[in-house]
Amino acid sequence: MIIFISIYINIINKDLRQDWIKARKIKKANKKVPKEININSKKYKVFIVIVFLLSLICFLSLFSISGLLIYQLLSGNS
After folding, report:
1. Euclidean distance between CA atoms 39 and 24, whole angstroms
2. What is the pLDDT of residues 21-70, one digit of tens each?
3. What is the pLDDT of residue 4?
4. Is residue 60 part of a domain?
5. By CB neighbour count within 10 A (0-12 exposed, 13-18 middle, 19+ buried), where does 26 fall?
6. How far apart are the first and last CA of the chain?
7. What pLDDT, on a 0 to 100 scale, did the predictor assign at position 26?
8. Residue 77 placed within a domain
9. Domain that holds residue 61
10. Structurally, how many domains does the chain consist of?
11. 26 with 38: CB under 8 angstroms?
């Protein structure tokens, strides 16, 4: 599951980077950026939310696993 999620994030990040580069080139040429290249679009906001939630889930799972291990060690059960 983590592999699929990382591939998904990589694909969206690559798309985001390409759109950002296009927007920069157009702005350097003093032209108006088309609406298709909107860095504030819903796709990028969803990407940021997904990355935040995944990092939160990973942190909480590591925290709970370490808490369970410490509880096992302190209680003396093996």
Report:
1. 11
2. 777 777 777 766 566 556 566 767 777 788 788 888 877 887 888 888 88
3. 63
4. yes
5. middle
6. 30
7. 72
8. yes
9. 48-78
10. 1
11. no
Place of tokens 């599951």: 1
CB atoms under 10 Å from CB of 36, counted, come to 8
Q: What pLDDT score was predicted for residue 3?
A: 66
Residue located via tokens 């290249």: 37
Give a yes or no: residue 31 inside a domain. no
Element (H, E) at 28: helix 2-28
* Cβ–Cβ under 8 Å, residues 17 and 39: no
Exposure on the CB side of residue 39, measured as CA atoms within 13 A:
9
Q: Is the pLDDT of residue 1 over 60?
A: no
pLDDT on residue 66: 82
pLDDT at res. 74:
81
Going by C-alpha positions, the residue among 3, 21, 18, 16 that lies closest to residue 48 is 16
